[in-house]
Every structure is written in C-alpha cells, then in structure tokens.
Amino acid sequence: MGIEMGFRLAPRTMNLFGSAHSHCAARSWFDEQPQAQPLLLLVDDAQLAAPETIRQLDWLHSVLATRPLAIVLARIPGMGGPEMNRLLTRNSTQVERLALGPLDRTAVRELLADLLGAAPDERLIALAGDVGGNPRLIVDLVTGLRAEHHLEIFDGCAHLSADVLPGRFRTTLVHMVRSLTPLTRKLVQVGAALGPRFRLVDAARLVQETPGNLLLSVDEAIAGGLLVEAGGQLAFPGQLLWRGALESVPASVLVAIRAEMSSTDTSRVSASEPNEPNEPDEPATSQEPVPDERTSGWAELTDTEQRVARLVGGGMTNRQVARSARMSSHTVNYHLRSIYRKLRIRSRVDLARLIYQNGP
Predict the structure, then answer these.
(1) What angle is formed at CA 94 by the lines to CA 90 and CA 97, rounded to 5 degrees?
(2) Sequence-distant (≥ 6) Cβ neighbours of residue 312 within 8 angstroms
(3) Alpha-carbon torsion (168, 47, 75, 189), positive or negative
C-alpha cells in the first residue's frame, strides 16, 4: 500500500475479479478507509476476468458514487466479453476510456533502455520495433532474450549476441493468436498463410464466410493489435507478429491453403506486389513432401542465397529483395529456386516458417 498524488493505493494482493471471499475482502478494505481519503485501484489484464466474477461487482457502483475512488482497468481493446462491456457502460458518466496506440520508435528505445538499464543498439531497437509497437511483446522479448542469454551489455550499451528469437517470446505470439475467438483466430491464421498482407475477400473465401460476416472478427483482430488496415488490405503490423501467426498454423494446413489459392490463381494477390513476374511459389520440386521444420539445408546455401532467403522469409517480394540486394528480379528468382531445392521446401510461406522456427 502507498500514497501517490494524494491517492491511497489498494494492496497488490487485492483481487477485484476473484472469488466471493476476495470480493468481500475488497469491499471491507474500501469500508475501512477514511471517507475523505481518495483511493486508487490498479487492475491489469482485466480481459481475463471470468464473466461470473464480473457479475458479482454490482456493489462497486455504489462505492464509486459515494467516495473518491479511481479504478484503472487495463485490458486489450474490445476483449473481456459482454459482461466487461456492461460493467464499463452501466454508469458511463463515471467511466472514461483512454485508448493507447502503438509505441513509436522513440518510445521503443526508451522502454528498452528502462528495461535493460543500458542504451540499446540499433539491431535491438529494430528487432523490438518489429512487434507493431506492442509494449507487452517488447517486455516479453527482452525477458526472453535475457533468460536465454542472447543479450550482452558492455559500457552501458546493450547488444544482441545472437539472431535467435527466444522460445518464451515465440510462445507468447502463438498464444495471442490462439486466445482469439474462433472465427477471428481462423481469419488471422488463414491471413498469415496468405502473407504479411492479404485481401479480406481472399481470406473470407477460404474460411467460407462473406466479408460482411467477418466485420466483428476484423475489429477484434485490429483492436488486439494483430492486424491493421493498409491500403485496402489487412496486414500484420510487424514481421514478428506475422511469423507468430504463421507459427500457430500446422504445416499441413499451410500446404492445403497454398494449394487452394493456387488452384484459383489468386495465391499471389496478397503476398506479392501487383504484376510481379515469376514469383516461384511452386518450383519444380513441388511434388516432394515438405520436410520437418527442424530439418534445414541452410549450410548448403551460399552467402548470397542466405541473404536472399532471409529477405524473402521476412516478407519481401522479389522486387523488394532486388532493390535491397542490388540485383535484378530475375537473379532473385534464380536464387530463390535454388534455395527451395536445397531446403526441400515449396513456397515463401514454408521458407518464412523454416527461418522463424530455426533462426538461421
């Protein structure tokens, strides 16, 4: 318990969304405080509260109406279900909503410095900046990097010691997708299979829904920070978020989705730039089975092929890779076919998944 700006903080052990016993303890604490004392209660991850515990909070409105009390509920936008929405709208004059947008590059740098107690280098800033400005994911990323000893701090500067995503962080990304409502989860996973950007009409056809029926799912995915609108398409706000969604899709499902998109000649609409020539999503080895994702012929690739593979696996089109690597699109296409053959994979999605899981 403490005093902040005249407020008395509620004990950290207070559980507003717990059992009947914890509800009783919370109300008793409020009743024990001086009537004129402003009180402050902080609740994180409110969207995880069970509906039955939220319904038991009717007494809270009388407390709000009779004493100076501020309750800060932090939740993922749009999540928490109808009971949470009812709690927040029952007395709208006493509820103020504050939407927190994604962190910009400066804020990401400052958060990293605060977490590490050292100035982050540019590689670390770029990695943390690839999660769509989500502070929770940045914290999980740093925690995982530390736990798995992938960070080095010298002379007040923090450096990445390896280009490997920590297992804890990858698990968090997958859990974000799997905790969505069923239809939204399906939309996000199918979208990930289509590419880092995709058209809603393509995803809708694959999940056998009309775009209109996916309106609430799109809203949920955007509110949860997994998707953003980008030029009439939907896109993952960061490459790591896309790869996390991709990781949550079984390999057999990825293959089936790619095959279905190829059969209708729309497989390249969302994953490539318009009129991009010769995207080799289905090379001559397409009849070979996709190998287990832990199997990789990475050591067989030349330095140039490894660079091309990383760029393509990061979501770039052939044209973008050509500009970045200063070579022609035809040369990129040649290298990509060689990469597919050596790694025994069939598509850009397989390549992204392989790189994401093995971190070569």
Answers:
(1) 90
(2) 318, 321, 336, 339, 348, 351, 352
(3) positive
3-state helix, strand, coil in the chain (%, to 5): 55, 10, 40
CA distance 311 to 303: 13
What pLDDT digit, counting tens, does each position of 45-90 carry? 787 778 878 877 777 777 777 788 888 888 776 666 777 777 777 6
Phi/psi at 167 (5° precision): -60, -40
Q: Which sign does the torsion angle of CA 174, 176, 179, 182 carry?
A: negative
**Which amino acid, one-letter code, is at 316?**
M
Structure tokens at 294: 């832990």
DSSP 265: T
What does the alpha-carbon distance between residue 166 and residue 264 come to, in Å, rounded to a whole number?
Answer: 38
How many angstroms separate the CA atoms of 248 and 271, rounded? 18
pLDDT digits 0-9 by tens, 189-240: 999 988 888 999 999 999 999 999 999 899 889 888 899 998 889 999 988 8
For 179, other C-beta atoms within 10 Å of its C-beta total 14
Whole-model pTM?
A: 0.59
